[in-house]
Amino acid sequence: MNIIHFDVDAELQKHLKGNTRPTSLQAIDASQDYSNIDAISIKSGSTADQESLGPFPHLKLLVTRTVGTDHIDMDYCKVKGIEVKNIVDYGAFNIAEHVFALLLSGTRNILATQPEIRSGTFTYKGHLGVALKGKTLGVVGTGRIGLEVIKLANAFGMTIIAYDVYKNEEACQELGYEYVELEDLAKRSDIITLHAPLLESTRHMINASIIESMKEGVILINTARGELIDTEALTKNIEKFRWVGLDVLEGEKEFSKDHPLLKFENVVITPHIAFYSDASVKKIAEETIRIIGKYEG
Domain D-isomer specific 2-hydroxyacid dehydrogenase NAD-binding, which positions (predicted)? Predict the structure, then answer.
């Protein structure tokens, strides 16, 4: 089977063999002949649609090295007989750990103290932290990642409420959290963390109306998909939030130094790295190889 792996960085390349490219599908030279390519693997940096897949007339398998598939035109792939496989789990704990990295960097003033420290000032005054114990954490989405977050939150002694269209009653009993409606979660939570997939029903689920329901001084964390949050509504109401930690952004492919959220001191943004650890890179490569090997039979 002839395969090209797109969106491959230096770390992943250590584990993936064969034809690897650092660029996305959108960067290919369409004048080249790709008629012998049977399979490709991509990440969310590539958009797989009629235009980008057109140069691969005999493509049989598309592996996305992600959980989500919103960057793939699934209808087009079905029509063309292209089998699409995703990596369902490459270590949900990686994203859960990053949730708490974003959270604690704000609640314990990790970032806020650095300018003073670097200027030679060493004082706790003016940097009152927020303890997590006893606070109410609202988890939006109780799939693999959401449940890993809940496990960590339990270790911090937090009260946990959750929203999901599909309720995991077994996990609810085992991990000791309560399912509520989204608006109720917004009203009751001291901290809200998003772990829902991007669907038409979840796009802008955090909108002006939901934000209005939230407590003053609420903390918002998003490591799922940027489009879950209405950026305009968030920007207009940013003073309501004590801290906003974002690993994903709406329209992040067009990110620039002029992004409206960059001017706010209560916002920290990381470049979609929640998944990216030594453990996950190895797992992603192993799963990609396994999926291709299984397809080859």
Answer: 100-274
> Which residue in the block uniquely carries the two structure tokens 């796009």?
203
- Kindly state whether residues 206 and 284 are assigned to the same domain: no
Supply the CATH number for residue 186's domain. 3.40.50.720
239 is a catalytic site residue: no
Helices 144-155 and 92-107, packing angle to 10 deg: 50
89/87 Cα distance (integer angstroms): 6
The size of the chain, in residues, is: 297
Per-residue pLDDT of 60-107, as tens digits, reads 999 999 988 999 999 999 999 999 999 988 999 999 999 999 999 999
Phi/psi of residue 284, each to 5°?
-60, -45
Catalytic residue among 98, 250, 272, 287: 272
Write the pLDDT tens digit of every residue in 231-252: 999 999 999 999 999 999 999 9
Place of tokens 């650095």: 114
Set 148, 227, 250, 252: catalytic member: 252
CA 99 to CA 246: how far, in whole Å?
9
Q: Are residues 80 and 136 in the same domain?
A: no
* Phi, then psi, of 112 in degrees rounded to 5: -65, -30
Query: Cα(76)–Cα(49) distance, rounded to whole angstroms?
Result: 7
Q: Which of 31, 30, 39, 48 is nearest to 5 (CA)?
A: 39
DSSP state of 22: S
Residue 225 annotated among the catalytic residues of the structure: yes
| Global pTM value | 0.91
